[in-house]
Amino acid sequence: MNPELDRLAKEVELNAPGNECLRLEFGYACIARVRHLLEEAAVVNCLDGLGAYLDGGLDRAQFDVLATEAAQLANRHQGSKSIDGCGHAAVSASYAVAKALAGKAREAADYAAYATVYAQGGSAAVADLDSFQAEHAWQAQQLATIARQHASHV
Fold first, then answer.
1. Distance (Å, whole) CA 13 – CA 3
2. Among residues 13, 2, 25, which one has the least CA distance to residue 116?
């Protein structure tokens, strides 16, 4: 759905075993943009836990517990509670958190983009691929920036 991001992810070897930190940082950046769409405090806590882990304030065991919790919370999300369906953005944002904590940054980016577009225009917007252009461009730029930062620290 985001060819430029796919190309860049392949170029920087986003899914390589040694690039977990890159995946986590990119996933975190994507979901930080949809934080305001999260409805459940427990999901926000998982997002904050990812930030704490990246900052060195959370150990791996605690992080792994949060990753499991985020997946459970996303799978249990009730969906939209409003007549216009805007809660679907919250569901997608919750899945973005779960995917990011699972180290699946590319999937997290897709869920975050969907949440962003859905929140802006509902089901009509997500049906229009052009609605995703701005978010997709931001994601590709963000991955390039984070990858450059990682490369300079090697």
1. 15
2. 2
